[in-house]
Amino acid sequence: MTVNATYQLPLLLVFFVVLVLLSFTSTAQDFDTDSQDVRRSQFADNFLFGTAISAYQVEGAYLDDGKGLSNWDVFSHIPGKIKNNDNGDVADDDYHLFLEDIEIADSLGVNAYRFSISWTRILPRGRFGEVNPSGIKFYNKIIDNLLLKGIEPFVTIQHFELPQELEDRYGSWLSPLMQMDFVLLAETCFKSFGDRVKYWITINEPNMVAELAYVRGMHPPGHCSAPFGNCSVGNSDVEPLIVMHNMLLSHAKAVKLYRERFQPQQGGSIGLIVQSHMYEPLRDEEADRQAVNRALAFTGSWAIDPLVFGDYPPEMRQYHESALPSFSPEETEYVKGSIDFIGLNHYSTLYAKDCIHSPCVSGGDHFIRGFTYTTGERDGVLIGEPTGVERFFVVPRGMEKIVDHFSKRYNNMPIYVTENGYSPSQTEQLPDLLHDVDRIKFHKGYLSALARAIRNGADVRGYFAWSLMDNFEWTAGYGTTFGLYHVDHRTMKRIPKLSAKWYQDFLTNRSRGSNREGLKNGKEDSQYFRKSKNNDMVRNEIKVAKI
Fold it and tell me: Residues of 45-82 as b/e, b for ≥16 C-beta within 10 angstroms?
């Protein structure tokens, strides 16, 4: 062996060790984000932890006890609109099983329960008919039973569904007449439930209503134009702006009513929910960093900026002043400052690419997209682990970033994370669906990121897992499963997944197995964790799973 050869082997070994260390260092932060343990004690004692559902997705009973036809009742019966031609006629039958579902939530240890009001259950024909006493009675039962268990009702007034009659009469959200109907709905809720409800959401995800119903035409009424979709009617560049404007004015008028006539006596708070991805630049270029800013402005800030500052985002005004509707001085007066908190639905992160100085596809070169193309892939590598929902990737760091963004943009206004959850591939069979270790990893990663955002100063006051149970996931039907509980639609039995037990342990500070003295109120022995073949399997898997 020569002298050079003698030194080559140790040098190669050192080089290999350095490479391994560098590789570990570069991925350490992501590893910490994805797998760091998280404990209930990292959040304030009065922090709201809950689960979320919405009326059409779980209630069923679509014509029972005087309920009217909603837009989703009609749309879901059009062949080909919903995967497998599923519909919400029965859904999870929560209308008849709501007491069981409240017991399930209580067994988890939650202190809040987000649900929505079915517009057509309490006002079957909007302002063209009478209030339905049976609908009022139903929601009173939900609220009263939640409060008996010490659980705060977190109520969404309108979550995607509306009376089909309003669509037929005047085009629903495309008409300013919708504002009058929505204020009546809100007033009915405040009068009927406001003495006990302290957390109100006016409208769930107006930005997604605009996107899914009027840009892509996937939700009712199914309006769109090329290149976003192939619909018989609609204008994807114009109608979403009109729809958003009417939703924001409806919200603001309802809040004005609430603050003048109800809030002083009832003492509740009121907000609006937006859905927002976080975005990262596709390329290390200033143009793509600006595209990130536009992507954020043209999604969540599209709705929240007017409610905080009184006008649409400057990023939108800059590029299309003439296309955006305007608020009159009188409207600005009651639109500005019309939220007490921000509701944030967050699931994933995407890359953003500039389409002003670069060619783009899929409509990225349109104003309605902020002249931005978004994708989950860069150089053939996904931004995070794929899930069962297109463009929903597991990117926990995005939770910290999006909360930080909203906190800084809106002067640290209180935030509630009103939805966050995971759906696996739709090919998974029941044993894998119940042994949902990926969902547990998802929630742990995103909660860890949320805890960091709070430590950094964000005023976050609540977190709601989507969803309490598998349900009708809109155009995806029943194949997309976000629930902590599986629902057997043959028997309507609710079966706890591994994640339900994890959330229960987390909420009682047992995430790390260091506090095993049992759950409050004897919930360990709840019927929803009583022994059965399926539950025994879940319990056994809890013992061996290394999350």
Answer: eebbbbbbbbbbbbbbbbeeebbbbbbbbebbeeeebb
Given the residues 165, 205, 239, 473, select the one marked as catalytic.
Answer: 205
Q: pLDDT tens across 349-397, in order?
A: 999 999 999 999 878 999 999 999 999 999 999 999 999 999 999 999 9
Rounded mean pLDDT of 120-136? 98
**Using an 8 Å Cβ cutoff, are 247 and 209 in contact?**
yes
Active site includes 205? yes
Residue 492 exposed, middle or buried by CB count within 10 Å (0-12, 13-18, 19+) = middle
Helix, strand, or coil here: 480? coil
351 — phi, psi (to 5°)? Answer: -85, 150
pTM of the model: 0.89
End-to-end CA distance of the chain: 50
Supply φ then ψ for residue 49, to 5 degrees.
Answer: -115, 125
Catalytic residue among 167, 211, 400, 419: 419
> Does residue 56 contact residue 219 with C-beta atoms inside 8 Å?
no
Q: Token pair of 461, please?
A: 């006051």
Q: From residue 66, how far is each of 92, 100, 190 by CA, in Å?
A: 19, 23, 21
419 has catalytic annotation = yes
What are 494's strand-pairing partners? 487
- How confident is the model over 131-155, as pLDDT tens digits? 999 999 999 999 999 999 999 999 9
Report the C-alpha gap between 291 and 6 in whole angstroms. 54
Phi, psi of 103 (to 5 degrees): -65, -40
Interval 187-214 mean pLDDT: 98
